[in-house]
Amino acid sequence: MLEPTIAQKEPYEVELEAGKTYHWCACGLSKKQPFCDGSHKGTGFVPKAFTAPTSGTAWLCGCKHTKDAPYCDGTHETL
Questions:
Q1: What is the pLDDT along the chain (79 residues), one digit of tens a residue?
Q2: What whole-number distance in Å separates Cα of residue 69 and Cα of residue 77?
């Protein structure tokens, strides 16, 4: 698998908790989008672990092509 699967062409609006570590799905195959459920096994992709700097709403990439993983950078608008 060379390219990630586009889960959706818009970001996921999620509530994050400051100091908590999350695992963002980088392959696009997870059934628990935008978070990893282990579906990447055998694809060559690994989830992006990140710790939320603050509590509140965040927009996580749904197209899996962002340059600012796990956050949406608007790349979905060009796919």
A1: 789 999 999 999 999 999 999 999 999 999 999 999 999 999 999 999 999 999 999 999 999 999 999 999 999 999 9
A2: 16
Let me know: does 1 contact 27? Beta carbons within 8 Å: yes
Q: What does pTM read for this prediction?
A: 0.94
* Distance, CA of 77 to CA of 61 (rounded, Å): 12
Using a CB cutoff of 8 Å and minimum separation of 24, what contacts does 64-73 make? Answer: 64/4, 64/5, 64/6, 64/7, 64/25, 64/26, 64/27, 64/28, 65/4, 65/6, 69/24, 69/26, 70/22, 70/24, 70/34, 72/11
